[in-house]
Design brief:
mainly alpha; Poly_Biosynth_Transport
Length: 533
Amino acid sequence: MEASAEKPGDGPQPADATGPDPARGSGDDGPSGRPDASGDTPQSGHGSAQDAPTSDKTVRTARTIVVLGVTEVIGKLSMVLLFIGAARILGVADFGAFAYALAVGALATLIPLWGYDTIVVQRASAEPKRLRALLAQLIVMRTVLVVLVLAIICAVTLGFSRTSDTRTTVAGLLVVAAVVLDTYTEGYRSAAAAMQRQNTIAVVHLLQRLLTAAWVLTALLLDTGLLGLAVAYAAGTAVGPVAAMLLLRRQGVRADWGTVSVGSLVRLNRGTWMIGLETVVSMALFRLDMLFVGWLVNNRAVGVYAAAYRLLETAVFVCWVVARAVFPLMAADPRPHRVRRNTERGIGVLAAVFLPYMTVLLCRGHDVLLLLYGEQFADAGTDMLRWLAPAPLLFGLVYLVTDSLTAAGPTLRVLTGAVIALAVNVVLNLLLIPHYGATAAAFVTSLSYAVEAVVLVFLGQSRVGRPRLSRTALPAVVASGVAAGPLLAPWPLAPALLVAAVVYVPCWAVIARRIDPEQVRVLRDMVKRRKRT
């Protein structure tokens, strides 16, 4: 079945584990003549331009990754500055309250998100003419769920809050509301992903993050406390959905409100329950540890854990950048060998970024925390950070394998892997956190993602095959091992990082050129095309 494998008005059909059925197609004339997500027309047979190692599609995909990556790096750095400022100015306890509100907000987004963004990318990538209708249906459905979720959270919070904590309660609710409202921005970004026009909207999202960070840091410097931070954070976040909507309108995409009806919303929800449940379970796996630390320890422990965890959150944006670039290609052409190939490309990027990052955190984690947050956070959070160091790579592997399995439509394999990992996470957190504190939560986080990755790769073999992980990741593994030398040397952090980078890059390039030359060729072609343009 193709990614959208349904005609308007029809529900999704069971996915074909062996590849698309030309008789079914995707509402067009079959896979051999259907344009893919980037506007190219796939050709049947072997040795086509589509399957060339350095095809235009491959280079465009890699260039999209670079553009998104640059904007996300700058945006994440602005959020890191926001977190550093909050941690240093608010203190551990108030910073813990802010981090706890962010965690609650992230969990609250589970219902409004519910896999709708993935469905829009899948269906609109295969049938671009449906994008305006799907966008309108997504926004309406999300609005209903956002109102419901915020009403429940406000009622529960106000019912259990103490009078003496009114300012903290109001600040927490503002932060939660801001996080939930940001789901509208994700909806518009999904529409841009379906059109393969992600670069401009990524810049807009970057400007919104910079604005939010500037307002929050200004509020902190004016000594407005936790409440002032929350107001500034909410105001800055609200800019995102408005700017994204205006940008899409300038690109000719407006939500077609006339297509919204009870029937269309029902059709939108068909096929989302599996993706929605998987999204809920995956986000719970990503955020429940923070709540467990707050429930079983205290706000101070949440603050220290959040400081270390922020380095995980800051890094995993790479997963989203890569997925936004390769998932539309998977959804547009979900034949197993094409999906597997795109998955391997994504894993290569993740390994090249996350393995050296993990090496830095393992070797110089205390120095990193000391530089960013100060001695109080560094002394208490170093062990947590070391246990969290493998988590970005494991999370990325889970993220890409999940996309590869859902490219052709929903599958119970993804939900099964997520449920198993969540069960491991909840049981071990309840058993270990009371005895070992937040350090146990860090250990359980990495272990849970490792369990999920193994389960998904095993269950996905019959659907898309097994990605060649060893060949794809080997250049980064060897180069990171070599770079560990200067990181372990008794040097200050800055020169150690500089020497490690100087060692890592050529080492990776030499090995990649020998065992996986496509990675190097893609980068070279990107540079050549950039010069010509």
